[in-house]
Amino acid sequence: MEVASLLATFLGTSLFGLQLAAPCSAQEPDSPAPMNVLFIAIDDLRPELGCYGSTAARTPHMDAFAATALRFDRHFVQAPSCGPSRYALLTGRSPAASGALANEALYQGATKLRPAALSDSGGRPVAQSLPEAFRRGGYHTVCIGKISHTPDGRVFAYSGQGDGDHELPHAWDELATPFGPWKRGWGAFFAYANGEHREDGENHRALMQFTAEKDTDLPDGLMAAAAAQKLRELKAADSPFFLGVGFYKPHLPFVAPRADWEAMAGIEIEAPASPPDLRVPSTHRSAEFTRYDSDLFDGPGPRLPLDAQEAITARRAYLACVRYVDRQVGVVLDALESEDLADSTIVVLWGDHGWHLGESGVWGKHTVLDRSLRSVLIVRAPGVTKAGSATASLVASIDLAPTLLALASLSEAPMAAPLDGIDLTPVLRDPGRAPRTSVAAYFGPWGTVRTDRYRLVARRTDNGWAEPRLFDCSTHPDPTAATELTSADLIQRLLEQLPR
């Protein structure tokens, strides 16, 4: 049975209150000018940044941005995979309500967004996605890079076959991703230097490559430069803008300029914190990681488990890519400042999910554990957020849609489906606020609930949720024997938060 069908059968409706937005009202003549939105998405970025306490990461640009914004220390995505996580954010819907758990959810199957414009029962147009709502609200919308699942907003197979339909129908005025010598979206996404890529038919499968000399020798550098130029153009436009910039790194393969690899050589990098042989729920064989080849691991494909030095080398490669993408974020934010747009632009920096760097024996995402579900979220809303603040409030990616619509005074914009998230504006104003007591996430047969202290993980069966396990995340983010609990009452209370 398809995953989406299983989910629809067992999950029913969302945990969170659903509210259908009303039609958008006209802006008063004396209302303040609407705020622009710069939404920066980074693929596979776990909170491995200096501003999140990492001693190994070299991320001065994202750290400097955090010093002007609100950092969310406990932000969790709704699915630990690119497509369904982005589906949840862009639609504001929990997988419990949508059934969207596949990378192709936005353009395939029952959950795909329909290419025809939608209207409500009164004949008024409604939006299927967040950027479409902004576009219908009078914003000029631009996509550069990976905002939805495909790397340029167009639907093509890895091979390049396909019709190139918009993955988010009616969302973007411009799809402006530069391809460079890679010529197409998936080529740029799986890029190596000199126009080579994983899907070019030449069997390029290196796990890591650090030979490029300039940032613009690789796709993320080209996208940063394109975004900076686009900001200059948007400044001169008459309408507010929603600019989405989606960087590819540190997604596999680990590719960045030579200087980033060399810069990490003298940095102390620790081996994974948790043993690799733990039998914890939803862990896997790291298939995405091991499909690549590397001479560093003595033969075709990395051997698992990696020994301590091999693990440090792989971590160094990830952090080199993080250093590279940090610099590209800096290019975009510098352009925002130089064009005097910072005070009129809401900026969101978001990681689409976390990533295991060997913890619990996993290299990659696709678990329903903290390492895979916790990711970066930093928000600057001029006049709302306090510079350099942080919050420990539990928040979810589905909360961003209602929050951005509210901040842009588009909270009454009609959406095609109810929003499952919570408006975080009160938290932006007062980081001590805690509107949530839990965040749920789903992947494959797994469901999970994260509270302030605990994470419950259970497996879905024909008879409901089975094999529940409870972990105390206050002592360690990775499941270990020392952190597992057996409280039957607490397990039952948390199981009741997973829809059947």
TrEMBL record:
Necessary cofactors: Ca(2+)
PROSITE patterns: SULFATASE_1
Keyword tags: Calcium, Hydrolase, Metal-binding, Signal
InterPro entries: Alkaline_phosphatase_core_sf, IDS, Sulfatase_CS, Sulfatase_N
EC number assigned by the record: 3.1.6.6
GO molecular function: choline-sulfatase activity; iduronate-2-sulfatase activity; metal ion binding
Signal peptide: 1-21
Pfam family, one: Sulfatase
Domain of life, per lineage: Bacteria
The keyword Nucleotide-binding is annotated on this UniProt entry: no
Stretches assigned to the Sulfatase N-terminal domain: 36-408
Enzyme class of the recorded protein, top EC level: hydrolase
Family, similarity comment: Belongs to the sulfatase family.
Protein name: Choline-sulfatase
Species in which this protein is naturally found: Saltatorellus ferox
